[in-house]
UniProtKB/TrEMBL annotation:
<dbReference type="Pfam" id="PF13853">
    <property type="entry name" value="7tm_4"/>
</dbReference>
<keyword id="KW-0297">G-protein coupled receptor</keyword>
<keyword id="KW-0472">Membrane</keyword>
<feature type="transmembrane region" description="Helical">
    <location>
        <begin position="51"/>
        <end position="80"/>
    </location>
</feature>
<keyword id="KW-0812">Transmembrane</keyword>
<keyword id="KW-0807">Transducer</keyword>
<feature type="domain" description="G-protein coupled receptors family 1 profile">
    <location>
        <begin position="1"/>
        <end position="144"/>
    </location>
</feature>
<feature type="transmembrane region" description="Helical">
    <location>
        <begin position="92"/>
        <end position="115"/>
    </location>
</feature>
<dbReference type="InterPro" id="IPR017452">
    <property type="entry name" value="GPCR_Rhodpsn_7TM"/>
</dbReference>
<protein>
    <submittedName>
        <fullName>Olfactory receptor 8G2-like</fullName>
    </submittedName>
</protein>
<dbReference type="InterPro" id="IPR000725">
    <property type="entry name" value="Olfact_rcpt"/>
</dbReference>
<keyword id="KW-0675">Receptor</keyword>
<keyword id="KW-1133">Transmembrane helix</keyword>
<feature type="transmembrane region" description="Helical">
    <location>
        <begin position="127"/>
        <end position="146"/>
    </location>
</feature>
Length: 165
C-alpha cells in the first residue's frame, strides 16, 4: 500500500520539530504511515531520529511489560499459597489467557519497534506491522474465549474431525 508524503517538518515525541529533507519519492511503500518508512525517504542523516524512536519505543514497551511481569510474579506467589489443587488450577487458568494476550501484544510491538533499521528490512517491517495492527487485535477475543468450556469443547471436536479427515 502506498501513501503520499508531504514534505516538511517532522515532529518527535517530545514536541520538538525537526526539519527533514525528503528528496526521494513522495510515496511510502508500507502498510501505514509509520515513522521508520517515512525516515527512509529522507536524504539527511536519520541516526538521531532513529535513536530517539528506539529509546522512546523501549520505554513505552518495556515499562508496562515489566510492570505486568512484576505484578504476575506477585500473583503467582499468592496462587502458590493456595492449598487446594483445584483452586490453584482455576487461578492459573484465569491468568493464562491474560498472559498469552499480553505476551503476543508486547512481543509483536517489541519485534516491530525495538530493532535498528540496519537490522530489519522494509518487507519485514510491513509483515510485522500487519501482525501488530491487525492480527493481534483479532487474536484477543480468541485467546479470551478459550476460557469458556463450550468454546474449548467445540474447538476440540473441530480439531478431532480435522485430524481424522
Amino acid at each position: 500500500m502506498k501513501k503520499t508524503v508531504q514534505r516538511g517538518p517532522l515532529w518527535d515525541g517530545s514536541g520538538n520539530q525537526h526539519c527533514e529533507n525528503f528528496c526521494k519519492t513522495n510515496m511510502i511503500n508500507h502498510y501505514f504511515c509509520d515513522l521508520f518508512p517515512l525516515l527512509e525517504l529522507s536524504c539527511s542523516s536519520t541516526y538521531i531520529n532513529e535513536f530517539f524512536v528506539l529509546v522512546l519505543s523501549a520505554f513505552n514497551i518495556l515499562t508496562p511489560a515489566l510492570t505486568i511481569i512484576a505484578s504476575y510474579i506477585f500473583i503467582i506467589a499468592s496462587v502458590l499459597h493456595i492449598h487446594s489443587v483445584e483452586g490453584r488450577s482455576k487461578a492459573f487458568s484465569t491468568c493464562s489467557s491474560h498472559i498469552s494476550a499480553v505476551a503476543v501484544f508486547f512481543g509483536s510491538a517489541a519485534f516491530t519497534y525495538l530493532q535498528p533499521s540496519s537490522v530489519s528490512s522494509m518487507d519485514q517491517g510491513k509483515v510485522s506491522s500487519v501482525f501488530y495492527t491487525t492480527l493481534v487485535p483479532m487474536l484477543n477475543p480468541l485467546i479470551y474465549s478459550l476460557r469458556n468450556k463450550d468454546v474449548k469443547v467445540a474447538l476440540k471436536k473441530f480439531l478431532e474431525r480435522r485430524s481424522f479427515s
